[in-house]
Every structure is written in structure tokens, then in C-alpha cells.
Design brief:
The complex is a heterodimer. By secondary structure, chain A is mainly α. Chain A is built from 11 helices and 2 strands. In chain B, the strands form 2 sheets. Chain B has a 6-stranded mixed β-sheet with strand order 6-7-8-3-9-10, with helices on both faces. A 4-stranded antiparallel β-sheet of chain B has the order 2-1-4-5, covered by helices on one side. The chains are: A mainly alpha, B alpha/beta.
Chain lengths: 269, 233
């Protein structure tokens, strides 16, 4: 979730307000393939991610690319993505109905180690997220196209000088971010229930984490998620879950006052 | 001819920066483009490299028309623009910057060989290859910029004011390296420069540019200093 936001912001410098809905869309795709087509968990997830990738590619080509040619495109893209998010939310509502759905757990059962009690499903989620983060970092550091994405993010004129196709790099970064976001939605869909509207909730959480850790910094996103996750657990345990949001936003405001670029912000991916 | 520029016009918005500029550079030649600041020299290099496409005229590289080609296509054909240092990727290492110079498919197969040449040219870069570029000094940044241009496997380098902002010792080092590139690798060079004395000893031929047009063209050993001074004032 936060990673997808980070890639889009880090490379293209657009904040995607339709992000939560994109995650929900990914989750609904997987739910659809799993329960309606019956093709099994792994194929469903893979097919969903591939569809999300091409959806991102197409979406960039027919909308964002055109917006980017206009002056003030940063602001118009934000409004456009917000509007498109609402549109997509209602499409999902029409297509799948308002009833609460969820994706089944990957694994049943739990494990107890001393005082720590974890179920296998959550362990698999953590491992999957770590794997994705490592894979993304390797991709950005080692592959030509990943290097090009970082180059474009850091110095666009320099990227043109060495012969990087800016437009192609943008479109792939956007598509990759949409696929990663869709994947995060799938994971969230197994952990929580899902409705067409849940995306806003997810997005606000993702937004707080991303800005907290530093917009455009992938390690920042992970650090932000870690700190806020622990805070959430402690607050729920000792004060009550109603206080999670107030305390989150309290911390958020303090961080913004002391370090507006976020914990690890001010650098690029 | 490595490069033939004919009657090129270029604009920034409504402002005309280049007026019917024509020049030629032969294969293996070292040509310097002189003239006061803000009179279109850098714009001409950017026009040739496809970074600021000109509006009229003809630009031929080894006989092929490249007017209207994209920057990506032009790099692939073997023409590299070496910009000022601010065009480096600040949060990447020296090595990553150099490798990205070989981004175009034609250069990737010769990455090792070209990297070796860059490191023999600038041993300092090999020492600092894992350092992030934003930590480098002005001279080192300039070396990375030149190295990155070489990594593209170009046969024609468009070098934009390589000595700007450098100490005399570093200026000499940078000029020496460009001379070596021209001599040892027979890479054709078109260089914009403010240091007239240095440019005259390095280049075989010079063009003087003012007000967006070419004032005159001379062989470097036949230059009349008074004529140059007159052009500047």
C-alpha cells in the first residue's frame, strides 16, 4: 500500500488519491477469480496482478500522460485521481454489490512461541511483504529499467541526456505501482473484510504511513508502517482501539512540525 | 562529415535564440565554439542532441538527417551531450551514474571496456566509484559527467563548458582528458568554451558565435586575437 504510493510519488511526483480504490480493485479481482472462476489462490493473485499492471499502463497512457503535457499538471492530476477513485469505487459497487466480502486465509492454524502467538497466515503475510520489498529494491537497483526509474526520479534532464525514454519509464513505473498496490489490497483483503468503500480507510492509513516515513522513500514507508503498527498495538492494548486514530494523527502532526519531509524523507527511491 | 548543421533556427517561447546557424565538424576533428554568454552556444548543442528541438533547418550526423529525432534516438546513433554537473543523478553512486551512461542498447555490450577507459582517464573516479554523486566536488562531478558521456559509446561528443567553475589545476586536468579522448579514441569533439586561450590550443578549428549567429570560422592557428576581442565587446 504505502510502497505503491511511494513509487508513484517518488518517480512521477504525483500523489495518487485514487490509491485505496486501486488496492480494493486488486482485492476484488482476486476474490472474483477465486470464488467465481475457481482457479485457485496463487493463479488468482497472479492474474489479478497482471491485470492491474496492464490497467495501470493503459490508465497512464490515456489519462496521466495527457494531463502531464498541460501546465499545472501536478494539481490537476491529484484532483483527477481523486475523482477517478470515486468513479472506480462506484463501478466496483455496481459490479460486486455492497456486501462485505473477504479473501480466505492463505494458511490455517497458528503457532505459539513463548508468549508470542501468531497464526500462520500472518507469518506468510509478513514473509510475502518482505519478499516484495526485497524484490522491488533489487529491481530498482539492479535492472536497467529500475535504474532508469530512479534516474528519472532524481534528475529528469540527466535521464534524457543518457537516452532514457522518459515517457516509457513513467508508464512502467505507474503500472508497476498499480500492480504492487493491487497486490497489497489482496493481502489486506485476507486480513480484513472488504467493501467497495474500505479503500478510503486503507488509503488514509497508507497516506499517514507514507508521509510519516517520508514521501518517496521506500525504507521510510517500511519504517513508518513499523512504528505506527506498534503504536496501534500498544494503544489498542492499554488505552483502547478508539484512541488509535487520534494518537496516530497526533504523532503525524508532531512529525510534520519537527521534520516536514518525514522520518527518512528528502531522498529519492 | 561527422556533423553538418544547416540554417538552424531555435526558439525559447517567442524568443529566437538561434538564427540560421550553420557549422560542420569533420570526422575526428576537435572544434571549439566560442562567444559571449547567453548568445546561443549551449542552445545549439542542445538542439543537436535533441534536448531542445530546433524549429527550422537541417542537422545531419554522418549523412543521416537527425532534425526532429528524439534525444533517445540521437544517443543511440552515437552522439552524446555532456552537460554541466547538475545533470548527474545525485543519489546514485559514481558507478551507477557511469553505467547509466551506457543505457542505450548499443552501448551495453561494451560496458566493461568503456568503463576501463573512463577509469584510466580519471583514476580518481575509480577510487570513489561507490560514493554518492551529491558528495563529489565540482571537479569530480565534471569527470563523472564526461565519463558518463563516454560510456554511451559515442563517436561524437558535444561538450558544454567543461571548465566552468573549476580551479586552474582541475581545468587543465579536464582539458587534458578531453584531448586524450580526441587523440586516443578518435572521438570527434564539438566543445563550447569560455576559456579562449585553452580552446585555441586544444581545438583545430573554432567558430565564433554571437547574437544567435556564427560570426566567423577560423583554423585555431590562424586566429587573430583582436578579432576575437572585438566579438566579445
Amino acid at each position: 500500500m504505502a510502497l505503491g504510493l511511494t513509487i508513484i510519488y517518488g518517480v512521477i511526483h504525483v500523489f495518487n488519491f485514487g490509491h485505496g480504490i486501486v488496492a480494493v480493485l486488486g482485492a476484488y479481482f482476486t476474490w472474483f477469480f477465486l470464488t467465481r472462476m475457481g482457479i485457485g489462490m496463487i493463479p488468482s493473485i497472479l492474474v489479478s496482478c497482471v491485470i492491474m499492471f496492464f490497467f495501470g499502463l493503459l490508465f497512464y497512457k490515456v489519462t496521466i500522460r495527457i494531463l502531464m503535457k498541460k501546465p499545472n499538471w501536478e494539481f490537476s492530476s491529484i484532483i483527477f485521481l481523486l475523482g477517478f477513485g470515486i468513479f472506480l469505487e462506484n463501478i466496483i459497487l455496481q459490479a460486486f454489490g455492497p456486501r462485505v466480502k473477504s479473501i480466505p486465509l492463505f494458511f490455517e492454524g497458528a503457532i505459539e512461541v513463548g508468549i508470542i502467538y501468531m497464526n500462520w497466515h500472518e507469518i506468510s503475510l509478513i514473509l510475502l511483504v518482505i519478499a516484495i520489498v526485497v524484490a522491488l529494491q533489487l529491481f530498482l537497483k539492479k535492472s536497467w529499467i529500475g535504474q532508469a526509474m530512479r534516474a528519472v526520479a532524481q534528475q529528469m534532464d540527466g535521464a534524457r541526456v543518457v537516452g532514457i525514454d522518459i515517457d516509457r519509464t513513467f508508464s512502467l513505473a505507474f503500472a508497476l505501482a498499480i500492480a504492487v498496490t493491487g497486490f497489497s489490497g489482496i493481502l489486506l483483503g485476507t486480513r480484513y473484510f472488504m467493501t467497495p468503500h474500505i479503500g478510503w480507510d486503507w488509503m488514509v492509513k497508507g497516506f499517514v504511513i507514507t508521509v510519516f516515513g517520508g514521501l518517496g522513500s521506500a525504507p521510510g514507508a517500511i519504517l513508518g508502517a513499523f512504528i505506527l503498527g506498534i503504536t496501534e498495538a500498544i494503544v489498542t492494548l492499554y488505552i483502547g482501539s478508539l484512541w488509535v486514530w487520534p494518537i496516530w494523527f497526533g504523532m503525524f502532526i508532531v512529525i510534520l512540525l519537527l521534520r516536514p519531509q518525514g522520518l527518512l524523507g528528502g531522498r529519492t527511491i | 562529415m561527422a556533423l553538418e548543421v544547416q540554417e538552424v533556427d531555435s526558439f525559447y517561447g517567442d524568443l529566437q535564440v538561434l538564427r540560421k546557424v550553420s557549422l560542420t565538424v569533420a570526422e575526428g576533428e576537435f572544434v571549439a565554439l566560442l562567444g559571449p554568454n547567453g548568445h546561443g552556444k549551449s542552445t545549439l548543442l542542445k538542439a543537436i542532441a535533441g534536448l531542445h528541438p530546433p524549429s527550422l533547418g537541417s542537422i545531419r550526423y554522418r549523412g543521416t538527417e537527425i532534425f526532429g529525432a528524439t534525444a533517445v534516438e540521437i544517443v543511440q546513433m552515437g552522439l552524446a551531450y555532456i552537460p554541466e554537473e547538475r545533470y548527474l543523478f545525485p543519489d546514485m553512486t559514481v558507478l551507477e551514474n557511469l553505467n547509466l551512461g551506457a543505457y542505450n542498447p548499443n552501448a551495453r555490450s561494451r560496458i566493461k571496456e568503456n568503463l576501463q577507459f573512463v577509469f584510466t582517464l580519471f583514476p580518481r573516479l575509480e577510487e570513489r566509484k561507490n560514493q554518492k554523486c551529491f558528495t563529489l566536488s565540482g571537479g569530480e562531478s565534471r569527470m563523472v559527467a564526461i565519463g558518463r558521456g563516454l560510456m554511451s559509446g559515442a563517436s561524437l561528443l558535444l561538450v558544454d563548458e567543461p571548465s566552468i567553475g573549476l580551479s586552474p589545476a582541475l581545468k587543465k586536468a579536464v582539458f587534458d582528458s578531453i584531448k586524450k579522448i580526441n587523440h586516443e579514441r578518435s572521438i570527434t569533439i564539438l566543445m563550447v568554451e569560455q576559456e579562449i586561450e585553452d580552446a585555441l590550443t586544444l581545438a583545430g578549428r573554432i567558430y565564433m558565435m554571437k547574437g544567435g549567429t556564427i560570426l566567423f570560422e577560423r583554423n585555431a592557428n590562424e586566429v587573430d586575437k583582436a578579432e576575437i576581442e572585438k566579438a566579445y565587446f
